[in-house]
Fold this protein.
Amino acid sequence: MLEATSGSVAAFEALVRQYQVRIVNYATAILKNTAEAEDVAQETFVRAYRALHRFRGESSFKTWLYTIATNTARSALDRRSRHHRMEGGSLDDETRSRGADELPAATTDAEIALVLRQSIDHALATLSGDLRVAVVLRDVEGLDYKEIATVTGVPIGTVESRIFRARRRLRRLLEPLVVARSHSGLRRTP
Amino acid sequence: MRCDEVEHAVMQRVTGELATAESQRLTAHLETCVSCREAVESQLVVSTVLANRPRATAPLGFETRVMANLDRSPGWLEVINWQRWTVRLAPVTGILLVVAVVGLGSVESAEPLEFADLVTGWVGEEEDGRATTFSVLWQEDVTDDLLLEAVLTAVP
C-alpha cells in the first residue's frame, strides 16, 4: 500500500489484483447491468490511482476504495436516470422485480448461479440508491456499520435505519427465491 | 419496548451490542407484536439471501485493461499539488538564493562608473608610474608616433 501511494505502478497493480473481484461484484449489485458495472469498476481504479497521493490512511484502503466506487456508481446511476428521462422511458420496466414464475430456466450450476444473482440484483434495483448502497455494503460485501458510515458519510444510526428498511422492502421481492431454492433450487430444464 | 425502538434494538442485537436486559425486552415485545416479528424475520431472511448471492467475477483481462487505462501523466489535481511542488522545487530555490546573494554582493561593491572617475584613474595610474597611456591625448606637442603607441598599448 505504501509503495502504491509513493507512485509504484507495480504495487498499484497488486492492489487491483487484490480488490478487483470485490469492486466488480459491488458495482454489479448496485448497477445490475454487467457491462456498466465493469466500466464503473475500471473507472474506480483509475480514480483511485490518480488520488493515491491524497490517501491519508485515516480509513482503511478497502473503505477508501468502496467510497470511490460508491461515488462512481452513483454518477453512473445519475447518468442513466438522465438518459431515461431524455429518452422518455421509464425505469419501472428495468427495475421491476421478477416473480417466481418469471425466473428463467437454467441447466447448469453456472446458469443457476447467474439467474439467482440477476434475480437478486433485479430486486435490489427497486430500492432507492441510499438504501441499495447500505444493504449491499452490509449483506453482500460484509462491511460493518462503522465502515458503511465512513463510505456513505452518514451517521451509524442512519446506516442501521437504511439497512433495516431495505431488508423489509426486499423481503416480499426475494420471497420467490426463497421458495424456489427450497424446492430444489431454481427450476432446471430437463 | 415500543415498536419504534425495535429497529435499533434488532440492529444492535445482530452485532452483539444489545444489553441482556434490552434483549429480553425485545424478545418479550416480539412475542406479542406480529408486525415487528415479521420485520425481524425479514432481516434474517433477506440478509441470508443476499449473503448467498453468487458473486460476479472480474472479466478476463480486467486487470490488464485497468493498468492500460491509467493515465501515467498527472491529473490537474496532482499538478497543483503544492506539497509535491514545494519538495521538487526546493533545490532550485536554494540555488537561486545563493546566486542572488552572490550577485547582490558584487553589485553592492561596484561603484557607479563616471567619465570623470575614468580620467582620474588614468591620471593616477600615470602618477604612480604604472602607465603613460592616455595623458598624451591632451598634450599639445605630442608626436604621431607617441599617439600611435598610446593607442596600441592602451588596455581597455
Remarks:
- Chain B has eight helices and no strands.
- The interface with chain A takes residues 7-8, 10-11, 15, 39, 41-43, 45-47, 49-51, 53-59, 62-63, 65-67, 69-72, 74-75, 77-78, 81, 84 of chain B (CB under 8 Å).
